[in-house]
Amino acid sequence: MPTVILSILPDVNSTTIAISEDYNIVYQCDIDHSKCDFILLDNIIEQLPFRRDAIIYQLRNDNINIKDINYVVSEGGLLKPCESGVYHVDKNMISDLIDAIGGCDIINMGGLLAFTIANTLRIKSLVVDPASVDERSEISSFSPHPAIKKKSLFHALIHKYLSRKYAKSISKRYEDLNLIFCHVSDKSVSIAAHKKSKIIDVNQAYMGFGPMGFCEAGSVPTSALYDMLFVKHYSKDEIYHLLKQKATFFTYLGTNSVDDIMRSSKDNKKTKLILDVMAYQISKEIASHYVSLDAEIDAIILSGKIFSHNRFLKYIYKRIETLAPITIYKEDCRIEALIFNVLDCIASKGNFLSYG
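^ thats the sequence. predicted structure below, dont judge the formating
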């Protein structure tokens, strides 16, 4: 009998679900929540029962026998620092997701949805490579002040999965390669140095520092933030929305949709300028890892839909092409990554990790 997996990927206004039998995705659906009243709830945890019910309803409405499902899996959220792998969702993880110990983001909803649905079906719930995977060196994680922590919060699932996929494509082991990996999501950017399968340096993509994303600000001048808080008296919520949800493209163009931005860049000078600024910042961050990897780079991997945009890609390409060979993955591979990791863990007879 095949292993049947329900994969769940929550987004701000939608939830993507997929049913797979072993490695084959036999069903996939995007559930649109944009017209649902619960999206207006300020606390994303309050959305949990509504999203759970929407998933169960959609599966039953599409004649999916939920009793056949063996595992429910999602991305890991903003948790405490942890190692890479497949985790069983337990009470400790649920508590940390609810308390948002690593920050508040829709990604936290994934583990909670997996847990509640799996409990209903009396099966195991899992998360893969939480965003808080931390393999950084002591030097790269050092903070200028003990009260200020540099967190490892990035797109760990995609980094790890595509790095292994690339290694396999050239008949090598991930453990033998030095890679610079750049992922651009529809919100933020993460760029990391992978040294022999360990991510020794990476920017904090979630409410942190590094290149600006499509709606997250990335690094901002400390003096300007200080003035906003203590001179202009911005509230905590105002700062949060400014840095995380309403910066860059969203504040200048009113959208963070990658498709809309690519379309408007054909004749909109402001869009072209902001794309060039983003590409410039990404190029600088990628080049900085020449130092992280001691000038020994086997490849640079670029991941994200935006690399379908010729102007954006060319801007970056001409600035980094002398560093190492470049490989590009444009498609969203998160569902594929979730399935692969769970089945690989089962096939190798490895135990699911415990979140202690």
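The radius of gyration is 20 Å.
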